[in-house]
């Protein structure tokens, strides 16, 4: 994996400048399906059910300087129609990167999966009842960049009861912005 140009969420290293930070990141400025997006005008469709088969087990919580990322073992799967994806990691964005009808959410979780092409499942998070699994994770969040913690986690306990979803072709949201995300 290449070393990306230093980027951030504000100032000269923020989203408005990402496509200019490195020639490798030009997709951000010139791409045709860049994420994040504002999900508006959804059209009802008969989409395949998402089937989650994520395993509980050891994980590494990493503060990578941009977000808190939880790396998991490779025995967790998501099925969408005929396609199967392996869960690699999940991470959080506060506030949400994606909007729904112009509305941001206090937090968004990205569950990053991989198959022949990279795929992802983003979950919008809004205030509500407590979630013991998230509270346990948050208590382990390293406070400093490049710090790590070990724990056991069951990612499925972070999902809502209903798995209704939007589908679109997009991109990675941080550099290199590769347009390989469904």
Compact overview of the structure:
With 182 residues, this protein is mainly beta.
Number of strands: 10
User: In DSSP terms, counting alpha (H) and pi (I) runs of 4 or more, how many helices?
Assistant: 3
Question: What characteristic shape results from the CA principal axes?
Answer: globular
Terminal residue distance: 21 Å
CATH topology: Carbonic Anhydrase II
Within CATH, the superfamily carries the name Alpha carbonic anhydrase
- The SSE order reads HHEEEEEEEEEHE
Structure notes:
The chain has 182 residues and is mainly beta. It has a single domain, classed as Alpha carbonic anhydrase (Carbonic Anhydrase II, Roll). It has three helices and ten strands; from the N terminus they run ααβββββββββαβ. The protein has helices spanning 18-21, 27-30, 132-140; strands at residues 38-39, 50-53, 57-63, 68-72, 77-80, 83-93, 99-100, 107-114, 118-125, 148-153. The strands form two sheets. Strands 2, 3, 4, 5, 6, 8, 9 and 10 form an eight-stranded antiparallel sheet that branches. Strand 8 (107-114) and strand 9 (118-125) form a beta hairpin. It is globular. The model has no long low-confidence stretch (mean pLDDT 79).
């Amino acid at each position: 994996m290449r070393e990306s140009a230093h980027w951030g969420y504000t100032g000269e290293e923020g989203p408005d400048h990402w496509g200019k930070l490195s020639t490798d990141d030009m997709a951000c400025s010139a791409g045709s399906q860049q994420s994040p997006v504002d999900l508006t005008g959804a059209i009802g469709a008969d989409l395949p059910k998402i089937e989650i088969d994520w395993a509980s087990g050891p994980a590494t919580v990493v503060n990578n300087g941009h977000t808190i990322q939880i790396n998991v073992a490779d025995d967790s799967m998501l099925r969408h129609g005929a396609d199967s994806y392996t869960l690699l990691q999940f991470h959080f964005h506060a506030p949400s990167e994606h909007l729904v009808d112009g509305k941001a959410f206090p937090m968004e979780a990205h569950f990053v999966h991989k198959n022949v092409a990279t795929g992802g499942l983003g979950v919008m998070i809004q205030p509500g009842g407590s979630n013991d699994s998230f509270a346990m994770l948050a208590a382990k969040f390293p406070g400093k960049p490049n710090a790590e913690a070990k724990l056991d986690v069951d990612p499925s306990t972070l999902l809502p009861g209903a798995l209704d979803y939007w589908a679109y072709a997009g991109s990675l949201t941080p550099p290199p912005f590769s347009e390989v995300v469904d």
